[in-house]
Amino acid sequence: MLANKGVNPPSFRKTGTTIVGLIFQDGVILGADTRATEGPIVCDKNCEKIHYMAPNIYCCGAGTAADTEAVTDMVSSQLQLHRYHTGRESRVVTALTLLKRHLFNYQGYVSAALVLGGVDVTGPHLHTIYPHGSTDTLPFATMGSGSLAAMAVFESKYKEGLTRNEGIELVTEAICSGIFNDLGSGSNVDVCVITKGGKEYLRNHLQPNPRTYTSSKGYSFPKKTEVLLTKIIPLKEKVEIIEGGDAMEE
Amino acid sequence: MPKQQANWSPYDNNGGSCVAIAGADYCVIAADTRMSTGYNILTRDYSKICKLADKCVMASSGFQADVKALQKHLAARHLIYQHQHNKQMSCPAMAQLLSNTLYYKRFFPYYSFNVLGGLDNEGKGCVFTYDAVGSYEKVGYSSQGSGSTLIMPFLDNQLKSPSPLLLPVQDAVTPLAEAEAVDLVKTVFASASERDIYTGDKLEIVVINADGIRREYMDLRKD
Question: Can you say how many angstroms the Cα of residue A52 is from the centroid of all Cα atoms in its chain?
Answer without folding.
Answer: 11
